[in-house]
Amino acid sequence: MPQRQRIKNLERFRDDPHEVLIATDVAARGLDIPHVEHVIHYQVPRTAENYVHRSGRTARASREGLTILMMDPSEAYLYAKMCRTLNKSKFINLIFYLRLTELWISKINNRNTKYEIVLSK
Fold first, then answer.
1. In terms of residue numbers, what domain contains 31?
2. Which residues, including other chains, have CB under 8 Å from residue 65's CB and lie 6 or more apart?
3. What is the predicted pLDDT for the residue at 120?
4. What is the pLDDT of residue 72?
5. Which of 38, 49, 74, 76 is a good FRET partner for 17, with 20 to 30 A between their CA atoms?
């Protein structure tokens, strides 16, 4: 993607509180994007440092935020390594099974149906 398009996408994301930005690790550092409430990792970061930087896009300036990490079972070793490095006791772990996740994704993609997903402790 050309740099001009990247800048335009980032500005649009900054200006619209309902916008979604899909990015690589390049966006994990050096960008100050205020008011990010959620970061969704679609794969386990290769290092704990990358996880911290990616997740650091949310909960800035003492605000609360939510980081969600999706992983394939083949990435479990990376997740375990990251948890050891970052002190796993600080994480709230919610395990979603792939088949169930795929079912929900297909339901959400059905535009004729409305869903509200609520997670509680």
1. 3-95
2. 36, 37, 38, 39, 55, 58, 59
3. 44
4. 79
5. 49
Measured distance CA(66)–CA(34) in Å, rounded? 14
Query: Residue 38 and residue 23: Cα distance in Å, rounded?
Result: 13
Helix (H) or strand (E) holding 43: none
What is the value of pTM for the model shown?
0.61
Residues in the chain with pLDDT values less than 50: 117-121
Q: Contact at 8 Å (CB) between 97 and 71?
A: no
Q: Is residue 105 part of a domain?
A: no
* CA distance readout (Å), 38 to 22, 33, 69, 110: 12, 12, 11, 23
Q: Is residue 11 part of a domain?
A: yes
Task: Please count the residues of the chain.
Answer: 121
> What tokens does 42 get?
């679609």
**Euclidean distance between the first and the last CA atom of the chain, given in angstroms as a whole number:** 40
